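Sequence in, structure out.
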Amino acid sequence: MTFFMVCDKKTGLCYKRVHGRSIPCWAPKEEASVWTTRAGASEALGSLTRRNRNHFIRDPQCEPEIVEIPFDRPQCVLVDGDDWEGFYVNGKLIAQHHHVQLGEIFEALGNPFEHQFADTKWLCERGNLPENLSEVRLQP
């Protein structure tokens, strides 16, 4: 997967889209806007170029360009063999048990994980979980 940003070659700052501002906002990469397609970044770059050309905001120090930011998701594989499971991330065994727990998977991927338990009687009467976590009745 690849993300796209508009960055200034000279300063290293990146474009941050701020609604209602007529002057471009430049920020560090961690705070700047990111697009999932090159077309989105191209549109922002075109807008910056037109704004600079058509308005009084001429900044000869600014040289914006589109920058690609690759984001490699880990390859995750769950191997199931009869009553034994193994969870691999990028080819390395992370956990193996009769049933690999979701908590182990999330932890290996660096995602926060919280395990909560629904009120069993409530869930049996309802038959399924609601769309929103805020509506789940938890065990006392």
